């Protein structure tokens, strides 16, 4: 008779998976207990401090101060500050409304923990943070302290100066100038009760701030708090969009604004362009649900063209069709009334959007017939002709030349880089170069597919389209340096990343190996991506 414990039922793979699941559950339970222990210690510390204050001892006041360099500090009465590694004081000062400049302590209240959630141990900042009067006072005083050295007023100074408030207010101009911050803060809180989209916006902005603070100070706990708030904002956004889709009356404008704020937070927290593009696609879905007549105000129309320029880069990069390519979104009756619509980029996009259906079709797994491939080649040549016409007219607007040559600062590939006549022209040309790369790549792939059915397609035609893409890749490389050297450019980085990613992807095509040596291009692309990483600009993809 065999001895020992009987074997668990199931296959060996099922038993191994059960063991791994048990280990994961134990690790999650251990982490949850550790975080609960930290929460309990922080609560006990707050209770002890409150009891000391009630017994007449010196209150250990913790105040939130925004320093001149933009960091978040927790200071004591004598003006000293805690170390950056002391995460408990920083989190407590932000998360508990009871920690105020006036020393009025309130009992700390932590949110209920969802023990079914493995990430329930994360710090959950209370939602009544922005509605606390003490926090408003701290915020306005901190903003004033940034403008005037030594203008920070302690609780004792404020109590002594309460009798002659008018005289002190006259001497404290920065405080009066920034007093409106608290009013705006409370207005935002009141609007949250009316529109859930603004609550999502508040969480997204708070998550960005916490993430930046945690990253700059090397404080992991603050970063965890930012990740939690960001996940909460995303969950609320998903629920709001689901409710909106089910017919609940919600403001589409505020939801799209919340989605854009979540998209920007994704760049700050995860530095993920894929997540950013996903949120932009959600904004586009909200916009496509209505017709252009819904854009009634001047501000909405200007924001529409800003969204159009951003979404275009990702639509070309991912090769997906876009509702903006429809004629009703291009030929707008009020277009001439919006100044931003006269940007040369939008004139180019009007013609380039015709390429998006071809890119989406290229990613389709369905194999096209020979007749369909011939029609596609004709459409691509028509798009190329329209783009050539736009380029000719665009260059004609600059009699002195669209760009000049300057000595390249990013050495390793070319001796000269492009110095454009203006920032709008540089943005339009960089995006145009990326579009031409996508067009050349699509043309080459289509000709190769057609060559298997039609022997009239010559090797010279395929080589010409292949080298056209290489030519535009080099044009894109020479355009990048303008945006990141010299004077600070206020826009154009998204166009830079799109053009760089399209060119980097193209020079790695194996079909180019037998025609030209691209070793220098490969090394230069890696060095440029590292420069972007130094500037904390995430590239679309590392290749």
From TrEMBL:
<feature type="compositionally biased region" description="Low complexity">
    <location>
        <begin position="1"/>
        <end position="11"/>
    </location>
</feature>
<dbReference type="InterPro" id="IPR053178">
    <property type="entry name" value="Osmoadaptation_assoc"/>
</dbReference>
<feature type="region of interest" description="Disordered">
    <location>
        <begin position="1"/>
        <end position="21"/>
    </location>
</feature>
<protein>
    <submittedName>
        <fullName>Uncharacterized protein</fullName>
    </submittedName>
</protein>
